[in-house]
Design goal:
- The protein has about 300 residues and is mostly helical.
- The chain has one domain.
- It contains 13 helices and no strands.
- The radius of gyration is 19 Å and the shape is globular.
């Protein structure tokens, strides 16, 4: 296997880990809100604070150089704002619409990634990538079709913001001046920017709620590690190895995981349209794995 093929395979694996763990957000955040009574600003602050400490510890153990230029600080702050904005809008949308629906709306971000890459960076498309994007979006549509109730427009609008913020974040990591930065260092500074943003947000809104008990803190730590540190680090590695387009398409694992959590943990309904939606999403992932490394340009 050539080095290019090996890097592509690594990127696919990292992308699947990233999207799969990102889909775990409702598993920890919803119980924190509904069972433990922790406010959203507090959840977001502790999520990013704990994840920053974790990532900082990794950098120290690996003896990474954390020195960055002023230009990089500006770029990192902007990327951190985009990532924090995505986290904020996604978790706030849970207040108005089911988490599975919110995640499937969020997944439409590959369209934004593709449009940005085509119109601003002149990336050429491939038959396989185009097909997988269409299959993924059809799968998402079928997943949304299961909701027979009235979906709150505010929730849809808030979740839709993540389509653009996350797409800009993914492209920014790939195409900005920090694209060649060490993945651990880049993740650390993005999470640090998010922690500072949410500290300010919490202090200027509801304040930082006191959190007591083993269970709430366990959920916060898991929220900080799995769908934040692990997800964001593997996302950056996936972008570096596989590129923005393949990484965004493999993000279809996010709604897959979110829907499974909704069905098996939160007891949400699961019909035939959901089944076919999951099949299409899995098919798109398999196609990317099998053919994404050898695209036929169109």
């Amino acid at each position: 296997m050539s080095q290019k093929s090996l890097n592509s395979a690594k990127g696919i694996i990292y992308a699947l880990i990233s999207s799969g763990t990102f889909g775990l957000i409702p598993l920890f955040s919803l119980p924190l809100m509904n069972e433990d009574g922790v406010g959203l600003p507090t959840i977001l602050f502790y999520r990013f604070l704990i994840s920053t400490v974790m990532m900082g510890a990794v950098c120290l153990v690996k003896k990474e150089n954390l020195k960055v230029s002023v230009k990089d600080i500006i770029t990192l702050t902007w990327l951190g704002t985009l990532y924090a904005g995505t986290a904020l809008c996604l978790i706030y949308s849970y207040k108005y619409i089911p988490s599975g629906v919110a995640t499937t709306i969020h997944f439409i971000y590959p369209i934004s990634v593709s449009l940005i890459m085509v119109f601003f960076f002149k990336e050429r498309r491939s038959v396989i990538l185009l097909l997988t994007a269409i299959l993924s979006l059809l799968g998402v549509a079928l997943l949304c079709w299961t909701n027979n109730g009235v979906i709150n427009p505010a929730g849809i609008g808030i979740a839709a913001i993540t389509i653009f913020s996350y797409a800009c974040y993914i492209v920014g990591v790939n195409k900005s001046s920090v694209s060649s930065m060490n993945a651990e260092v880049l993740t650390f500074y993005i999470l640090l920017a998010g922690a500072l943003i949410f500290m300010t947000f919490a202090l200027t809104t509801t304040g930082i709620d006191p959190v007591s008990g083993v269970q709430p803190w366990t959920r916060l730590v898991l929220l900080a590690f799995l769908p934040t540190v692990l997800s964001d680090l593997t996302l950056i590695l996936a972008i570096k190895y596989a590129g923005s387009t393949i990484t965004s398409i493999l993000g279809s694992m996010e709604p897959l995981v979110a829907v499974c959590i909704g069905v098996f943990y939160f007891h949400e309904a699961f019909g035939m349209s959901s089944f076919f939606g999951l099949v299409l999403i899995l098919l798109s992932v398999i196609l990317v794995i099998l053919f994404g490394k050898k695209p036929k340009e169109i």
